[in-house]
Inverse folding.
């Protein structure tokens, strides 16, 4: 389930930002109270929670659980006993029908919650037809086009730190879309949409240009910072990525070795020849290549030997599970070993605690990225964050 607190702007207007944030924290604590052993409740945004409930037998059970969550929201009080009318939109996806993999399940639940919000249903189950309807009704494609033109799309930056020095050495650029009428739309939803409409080309060009522009703006304070941009395989056939990279680095006068392109292991496996050629050209230009979500695909060691890459990013699901699950720990440990033996550097993403950070240090991982260091920040806040972080190391 995705649980989204509704009308946070109204709460802020009535109670002030501090009190509104405290209310959402209280609701979070209440939510934690409804989970059983093996359930997972994670905050995944300022006003958004992912709830994984195990062992529900049918839709009826899921509806009951959602009603319980609505009750928790309604009963969240201001501390003086007054009830502030906290409402939620809840999107439900069922496993494995509506997503066997965690990201598919989250995406379906996210779409269901948008559907619920749009149709003012409060609690809404995912269904394929209404998802399609939603995209058509809302004219999401046109809205995305407008966002590309008006600046409602922005690139946020999540810091990556070096595990031996503690310094911030780079960032991953992550796209954010705040649609004026619909509110925030998750990248998993609009990247898929952009893939299906072909708008991914423009979106990727925007990401590359923005990454270079920001590196150039931050040049004085962060001259060696590296920024990574995500690319999907479809853009390789639909645009001349080399030309875009050449032009963006020239316009903003940024060294090509400061730009990294992240491509998922799964995407690489889909079309080996094509991706191999293009990645080789990207590296010849001087940019770096990182294999994202490593461990979720099925690349063989023989393939890894040939792949034109500089870095491996261990998928966050393994990192997040490494302290509780022996299997995940082994995957992280071995991936670090494999990366080293092929001369690749290795990044762990999804680092959420100090304990994970120290364990990764012991295992010889090079870099870490995750909420423990920082979530993705708006560009305006990023340079300040890095400076504060450097000062805290002294
Ligand atoms: P990704 O490339 O695997 O990006 C990392 C995702 O993990 C981000 O989600 C980030 O916010 C989240 N994350 C980072 N640290 C933690 C942590 O400690 N714990 C947890 N639970 N999560 C963490 P986000 O921003 O929602 O992006 C989702 C996906 O959307 C990205 O996955 C990427 O595949 C895609 N995406 C985002 N921006 C772009 C873009 O500009 N272009 C393309 N092609 N894809 C993008
Ligand atoms: Ca990535
Ligand atoms: Ca990733």
């Amino acid at each position: 389930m995705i649980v989204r607190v509704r009308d946070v702007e109204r709460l802020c207007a009535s109670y002030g930002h501090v009190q509104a944030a405290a209310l959402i924290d209280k609701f979070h604590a209440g939510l934690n109270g409804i989970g059983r052993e093996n359930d997972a409740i994670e905050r995944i945004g300022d006003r958004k929670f992912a709830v994984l409930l195990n062992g529900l037998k049918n839709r009826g059970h899921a509806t009951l659980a959602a009603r319980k969550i609505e009750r928790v929201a309604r009963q969240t009080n201001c501390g003086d006993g007054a009830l502030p009318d906290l409402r939620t939109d809840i999107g439900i996806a069922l496993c494995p029908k509506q997503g066997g993999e965690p990201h598919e399940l989250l995406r379906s639940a996210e779409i269901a919650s948008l559907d619920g919000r749009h149709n003012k249903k409060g609690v809404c189950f995912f269904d394929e037809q209404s998802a399609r309807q939603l995209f058509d009704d809302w004219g999401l494609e046109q809205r995305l086009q407008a966002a590309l033109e008006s600046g409602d799309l922005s690139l946020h930056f999540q810091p990556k730190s070096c595990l031996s020095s503690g310094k911030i050495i780079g960032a991953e650029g992550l796209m954010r879309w705040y649609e004026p009428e619909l509110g925030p739309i998750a990248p998993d939803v609009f990247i898929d949409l952009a893939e299906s409409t072909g708008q991914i080309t423009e979106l990727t060009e925007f990401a590359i240009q923005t990454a270079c522009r920001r590196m150039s703006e931050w040049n004085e304070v962060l001259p060696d910072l590296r920024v990574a941009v995500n690319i999907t395989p479809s853009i390789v056939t639909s645009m001349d990525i080399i030309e875009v990279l050449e032009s963006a680095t020239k316009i903003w006068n940024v060294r090509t070795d400061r730009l990294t392109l992240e491509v998922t292991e799964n995407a690489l496996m889909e079309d080996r020849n094509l991706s191999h050629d293009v990645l080789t050209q990207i590296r010849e230009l001087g940019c770096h290549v990182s294999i994202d979500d490593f461990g979720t695909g099925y690349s063989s060691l023989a393939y890894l030997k040939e792949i034109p890459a500089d870095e491996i990013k261990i998928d966050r699901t393994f990192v997040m599970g490494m302290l509780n699950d022996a299997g995940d720990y082994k995957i992280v440990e071995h991936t670090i070993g494999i990366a080293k033996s092929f001369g690749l550097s290795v990044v762990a993403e999804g680092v959420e605690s100090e304990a994970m950070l120290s364990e990764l240090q012991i295992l010889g991982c090079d870099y870490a990225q995750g909420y423990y260091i920082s979530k993705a920040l708006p560009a305006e806040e990023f340079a300040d964050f890095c400076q504060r972080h450097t000062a805290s190391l002294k």
Notes: The radius of gyration is 22 Å. Residues 292-293, 313, 349 surround calcium ion (ligand 3) (CB under 6 Å). The first strand starts at residue 2 and ends at 5. The chain has two domains: 2-138, 140-393.
